[in-house]
Amino acid sequence: MANTQNVMLAGHLTTTALLGTVVHRLLRDRRQWELLCGRPELAGAAVEEAARFEAPVQGFRRTVTRPLELAGTALGEGDAVFVSFGSAGRDEAVFERPDEFDIAREPARHLSFGHGVHGCPGALLAREQLRITLELLVRELPGLRLAGEDVVMAATLIHRAPEELFLAW
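Predicted structure:
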């Protein structure tokens, strides 16, 4: 029961966060929105680009399991650390033009859904939900636009998403 609740809560928060981010980024740069309207098959690429550009989860807490030294800092077993990986998608050694949101970018692996045994178990479902939502939005509301310029991002260490996103069509 606890695992089911965790997956549902985590899946809802991160998926809605990424939906807010992808819609915000697409509408903030009208050329990107129009590109998606003209080429709805780029919806999956838009989801990946939004995840790379502004990961819905910026980091997480971990407990040190054995004594170690990390970047010159001694950590003991049981110490808590915050692993902040939100900026990994903007690494210029990995991504060309990292600060540019571009849904036509050649897909590259990012860390927004984790990796390996620490990968998000709901990543495939989230990607599919977001892809379908974007396809519906461009088909049904191609005139969608931001209703205001001021978009405030949630002030948390962990989640990255617009607090509110006012839209018009």
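Summary: The chain is about 40% helix and 10% strand.
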